[in-house]
Amino acid sequence: MYLTSRDEKPLRIPLHSRVYHSFISRKGPPMEKRIHTLTICVYDRDSAYQKVGETLHLFASNILLRTGFPMQNKNIAIIFLIVEMTTDELGALSGKLGQIRNVKVNTTSIKETQEKK
């Protein structure tokens, strides 16, 4: 199965390719940035803490607040983040963190309410 253009001519792009996914992601209005929270539990600070820090550095421009609680006697650290990003960026960040061994990630999106006039 192949992707077709607006005039129904086949573009000959396989649906499972990266080109297809980047083509599809350009359609529609841009995603809205929202406020999210992340709780990151690092269960083995010695092996995972550096990788977590490097990953967070990649998304530093989106991080509004970062606070951590290292428990050195238990070799555990808990990091709490407040970020402003799209849900796709949140998925990318939490996915990269979740792939690190001995790291668990929990995310929550904040519902923004409209003020009554």
Topology:
Blueprint: E1 2-4, E2 10-14, H1 18-25, E3 34-42, H2 45-58, E4 63-71, E5 76-85, H3 87-98, E6 103-109
Antiparallel strand pairs: 1-2, 3-5, 3-6, 4-5
Question: How does this structure look, described?
Answer:
With 117 residues, this protein is α+β, with helices and mostly antiparallel strands. The chain has two domains: 1-29, no CATH class; 34-109, Alpha-Beta Plaits (2-Layer Sandwich). It has three helices and six strands, in the order ββαβαββαβ. The strands form two sheets. A four-stranded antiparallel sheet has the order 4-5-3-6, with helices on one face. A two-stranded antiparallel sheet has the order 1-2. The longest helix is centred in the middle third of the chain and has 14 residues, at 45-58. Mean pLDDT is 81; it is low at 1-5.
